[in-house]
């Protein structure tokens, strides 16, 4: 399936892609990536922390020596401020390093548990999706807008999964009941608006930034895949109207 400008919207994984990227499963792949990125973040923060902390005493000493040469024998306020900033930088650096280490140590099972919790699903359902990926029964696509980074989406026979290194949402296809475009206004500048696709299931909803080039074929695919799906494809609804629509759909689905 292709979107506007001939962009590939959805394609099946080749044997090489499945073996090299998802051969051990989607969550094993995330664990490998998080280990690399987590370690890299930890090293960078540690390097910056050491560099700054090693220089702060020197900066303070030079300032105090200048004051002593001018006849002032008290510790300058600037030195005190530098000391406080150094302590805050040390605390923040320690926190980020610990976060990097935690991410680097996250296993595939940790990702499964986190995805199950975030998606309000049993772990067995999330593992079923992962098994379908391992079996090579998957396609992938990208949803992209103006504000956020491209969001990868994995589609199997029974699931649509979207997420990133920060989160993973697993949507059983049988639970998806609605999809539409919705618009969010930048709280700092109400003239700036961002376009999202809202994906509604029986127990929740998620929004993914996507312009028409990526969103239109995705909505068409969902409608083809789920004939009973309610789709608002030709109207951009406001954020408040979207959440009212979500409540209505979920109430009718009970």
What structural keywords apply?
alpha+beta, single chain, five-stranded antiparallel sheet, disordered N terminus, globular, PH-domain like, four-stranded mixed sheet, 254 residues, 2 domains, 7 helices, 9 strands
Count of folded domains: 2
Would you count the extended β strands for me? 9
Q: Would you identify the CATH architecture of the largest domain?
A: Roll
Instruction: Briefly note the CATH topology name of the largest domain.
Output: PH-domain like
Give the overall average pLDDT.
75
Shape: globular
What is the topological layout?
Elements: E1 10-12, H1 15-20, H2 26-69, H3 77-104, H4 108-119, H5 123-134, E2 138-143, E3 151-156, E4 159-163, E5 168-172, E6 176-186, E7 189-201, E8 205-209, H6 212-225, E9 230-238, H7 239-253
Parallel strand pairs: 6-9
Antiparallel strand pairs: 1-2, 2-3, 3-4, 4-5, 6-7, 7-8
Helix pairs in contact: 2-3, 2-4, 4-5
Quickly describe the structure:
The chain has 254 residues and is α+β, with helices and mostly antiparallel strands. The protein has helices at residues 15-20, 26-69, 77-104, 108-119, 123-134, 212-225, 239-253; strands at 10-12, 138-143, 151-156, 159-163, 168-172, 176-186, 189-201, 205-209, 230-238.
Describe the overall structure:
The protein is an alpha+beta fold and 254 residues long. The protein folds into 2 domains: 76 residues; 146 residues, Roll (PH-domain like), CATH 2.30.29. Helices cover 52% and strands 25% of the residues. The protein is built from 7 helices and 9 strands; from the N terminus they run E-H-H-H-H-H-E-E-E-E-E-E-E-H-E-H. The strands form 2 sheets. The chain has a 5-stranded antiparallel sheet, with helices on both faces. A hairpin with a 7-residue loop joins strand 2 and strand 3. Helix 2 crosses helix 4 and helix 4 packs across helix 5. It is globular. The N terminus is likely disordered.
């Amino acid at each position: 399936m292709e979107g506007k400008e001939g962009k590939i919207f959805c394609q099946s994984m080749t044997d090489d892609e499945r073996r090299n990227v998802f051969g051990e499963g989607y969550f094993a792949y995330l664990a490998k990536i998080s280990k690399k990125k987590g370690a890299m973040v930890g090293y960078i923060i540690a390097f910056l922390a050491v560099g700054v902390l090693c220089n702060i005493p020197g900066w303070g000493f030079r300032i105090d020596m200048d004051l002593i040469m001018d006849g002032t024998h008290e510790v300058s306020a600037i030195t005190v401020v530098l000391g406080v900033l150094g302590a805050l930088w040390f605390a923040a650096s320690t926190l980020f390093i610990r976060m990097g280490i935690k991410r680097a140590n996250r296993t595939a099972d940790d990702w499964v548990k986190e995805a199950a919790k975030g998606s309000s699903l049993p772990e067995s359902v999330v593992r079923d999706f992962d098994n379908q990926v391992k079996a090579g029964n998957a396609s992938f696509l990208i949803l992209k807008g103006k504000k956020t980074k491209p969001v990868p989406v994995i589609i199997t026979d029974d699931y649509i999964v979207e997420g990133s290194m920060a989160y993973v949402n697993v949507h059983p296809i049988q639970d998806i009941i609605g999809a539409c475009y919705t618009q969010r206004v930048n709280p700092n500048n109400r003239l700036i608006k961002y376009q999202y696709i809202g994906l509604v299931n029986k127990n929740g909803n998620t929004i993914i930034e996507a312009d028409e080039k990526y969103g239109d074929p995705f909505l068409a695919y969902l409608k083809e895949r789920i004939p009973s799906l309610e789709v608002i494809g030709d109207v951009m609804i406001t954020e408040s109207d979207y959440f009212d629509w979500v409540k209505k759909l979920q109430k009718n689905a009970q």
